[in-house]
Each structure stands twice: as C-alpha cells, then as structure tokens.
Design a protein that fits this description.
CATH architecture: 3-Layer(aba) Sandwich
Number of domains: 1
CATH class: Alpha Beta
Bound molecules: flavin mononucleotide
Radius of gyration: 15 Å
Number of strands: 9
Distance between the termini: 6 Å
CATH topology: Rossmann fold
Largest sheet: 6 strands, parallel
Structural class: alpha/beta
Order of helices and strands: EHEEHEHEEEEEH
Length: 175
C-alpha cells in the first residue's frame, strides 16, 4: 500500500481545519498529516504520494524574495536540494473566499500545481467549477479547478461533502 502524506500550510487557520476534515474523511487508510513549517523536504522521499493544502492570501506576495510564505520556502528547498518528485502524484486543495475575492478565487492552487510539476510530480484531482460563485481564478484550467476549492469563510457547511466527493476521485489514484 502506498504511503501518503497530507502537507499543509499555514497552521492555525482554515487550511488546518480543512486538513483535519480531509484526515477524518480519508476513511481508515494511513495518512500522515503534517504542517510544513518544520518539515524537512528530505523526508518527501519517504512517501509515494501527497495531498497538499494551501490558502490564497494575495498572490502578489507569494514569490517575493522576502516572502514568509511557507509554501514558497518549501519549494525553494526542493529546488535547492535537487529533490525529484518524479513518479509521485500530488492532489491539491485550496482555501479561498469567493465573495471577497471573486476575481482571484483560490489562485494559489495554480502555484502549487506549477511547482509540483516542476519538481516532477503528476497533479491529479481536478475539480468542477459548478456550484461556486466567482468570476476568475488562476487555478482554473480547461473549465476545471486544478484541485479542490474550499470556502470555509462562506460555505463551511459544504466542505465535508465536497471533500468526500473529491476523495472518491483522488483516493483510488493515491492507493
Ligand atoms: C489578506 C488576505 C488576502 C486574501 N486574498 C484572497 C484571494 O486573493 N483569493 C481568495 O480566494 N481568497 C483570499 N483570501 C481569503 C483566504 O484565502 C481565506 O480566508 C482562507 O480560508 C484563509 O485560510 P488560512 O487562514 O488557513 O490561511 C484572502 C484573505 C486575506 C486575509
């Protein structure tokens, strides 16, 4: 059986809430849930596949040299240490707010996708855009989100169901 890690950042907010929801709904299978601020990227090699969870809090600061974004650091470390994710699958979930940021809804999922692919991973778990109310998103490719979009600010009551449906697609691919 594959070893799967759910890596998320930041801690203490809605991403963490969603990570715990995913853990609960992952249904008995082994899933290591880890917040990445103290995670050594060398440990990535211990896993076959990954679920990555992020939020969008202003894409313009993400790739800034002074960025304190944990994901930014994470992918810089991967590049610096020449770590390859070839043969590994990555499924992404992203937190956003479609009412306050309808033109940038869950944009950051696209950054996680690009960086994961740059490291050699295959991104799986695309998700339909139906049922959301937004005007634009960097995270939409061919009419689908590149991962699961969650809006804990406005639709927390829908999260469990969205996660369950998404895991039906994603889990068989990670096993
Ligand atoms: C400064 C700031 C900027 C944000 N920008 C976006 C955005 O561009 N797109 C989006 O979908 N949500 C945006 N959000 C909403 C957050 O992604 C959302 O509240 C999320 O649940 C936060 O999760 P976290 O607390 O775990 O980081 C923003 C929130 C803040 C505070």
């Amino acid at each position: 059986m594959s070893k799967v890690a759910l890596l998320y950042a930041p801690k203490g907010g809605s991403v963490e809430v969603a990570a715990k929801r995913v853990e609960k709904l992952y249904d008995g299978a082994q899933l290591d849930v880890i917040e990445i601020s103290n995670f050594d990227v060398q440990n990535l090699m211990a896993y076959d596949h990954f679920i990555l969870g992020c939020s969008t809090v202003g894409a313009e600061s993400w790739e800034d040299a002074d960025s304190d974004n944990e994901w930014d650091r994470f992918f810089h470390d991967i590049e610096e240490r020449n770590i390859s994710l070839k043969g590994k699958k990555v499924a992404i979930f992203g937190l956003g707010n479609q009412i306050l940021y309808p033109e940038h809804f869950v944009d950051a999922m696209q950054i996680l996708k690009k960086e994961s692919e740059k490291a050699g991973a295959k991104v799986i778990g695309y998700w339909p855009t139906e049922g959301y109310d937004f005007t634009d998103s960097e995270a939409v490719v061919d009419d689908k989100f590149v991962g699961l979009a969650l809006d804990e600010d406005n639709e927390d009551e829908l999260s469990d169901q969205r996660i369950s449906e998404w895991l039906k697609i994603v889990k068989p691919e990670l096993e």
